[in-house]
Amino acid sequence: MSRLIVVSNRVSPTQAQGASSQGGLAMAISAALREYGGIWFGWSGQAAPAFTGTIAMQKVDGVTVATTDLDDQDIQEYYNGYANRTLWPLFHYRIDLTAYDRSYGAGYARVNGRLAETLHPLIEPDDLVWVQDYHLIPMGRELRERGAANAMGFFLHIPWPARELLVTLPRHRDLVEAMFHYDVVGFQTAEWCDAFKAYVLHEAGGTILPDGRLSAFGRTVRAEAFPIGIDAQGFRHLCDTPGGQASFQRMVESKAGRRMLIGVDRLDYSKGLEERFLAFERLLQDHPSLRREVFMLQISTHSREDVPEYQEIASRLDALSGRINGAMAEMDWVPIRNVHRLHTREELAGLYRAADVALVTPLRDGMNLVAKEFVAAQDEADPGVLVLSRFAGAAAQMREALIVNPFAREDVADAIKRALGMPLEERQRRWRALMDGVETDDLMAWRDSFVHGLQQARDAGRQTG
Fold this sequence. Notes:
With 465 residues, this protein is an alpha/beta fold.
């Protein structure tokens, strides 16, 4: 059996253990590596005085983890720079925040080359190589240039932008050409995959072959949608753990008979948090009878604090929630509980079950697994309602949610009002349809379908070799 080599920007032993604070993706990758054998390789998250390419390897719960340190210049230019100040905002349609700096692009290319140079000696001829996310788009090309002839796949966890936006990126053609060094390229939704194909056809002069592969730059690639899911039953089980039950009971007591809206997000401008607060304010302004009857719990965890734009988000959100609370709060009721503390997966499962409505309203998102976790955590006898942005990748699969335009606060406010008044029978019907989808298109189905695609690419290469 072929080994699986997973490459991600950052990897740590706690991810391989599937620690309670880690997401389901880390658990799925760990399970795949235990099943197929292989290595999980990436940046350690640590800075070194100079890049040496030294690899630290350890076995954690049956998973071999291989990490290397980057130097400060690498971190600033590759990670804080090109990945998070150039690609992230551009791919999330925030061209106004996109920073184009030649040093960032140079750092991105340099680090991908360094990581490929470090990884290449660990790869055996029959290994399947699976590269994760926007930090490492050139990794396949860098490995090919060092002689790797393995079946290689790339999965993009965030949106792929419309070609009209992508062409604003200096050296955009070079970035897309790098994608053609993989055998399989995966996207969260058909929309993002179609956007990639549109660029290839209209900007790169590519063609679609009879078997569906894309041809351009003298190479071919199979581009498909592989919607990511969650471990539905595993997450549902978290509600019954001591941590999940304690979190649920604590929240029920804190609700004091009121209805609760919940939002759980990283602090990021793509998540639409300010727009969400303003929509909730609009709801309370338009329907004063709901005051003291409903509140919002917003859990927003800090991320990328070295990037200036992220430092400003928390301050703006705190100021906005403070204004709304100052204008509307009473001695025994605060409309918005704005929390920045990290919670375990068990705690979140209990909070989701205690919530009456989930607000998943990003302005642009690759998938957004919070929507699926909320559904999985619900009590089927009395389920809550999911309000979901049409611009989240999950919206393509979760049509039974209340789909909203997050840019229109009236639209979101109306959906919340509808959710709060939705009859039990309708809530149960919508939840059952949503849960069926969450269980069918789960994390393991996503993982296995992508690995199967890599295996087919390997077998096809053997037949033509």
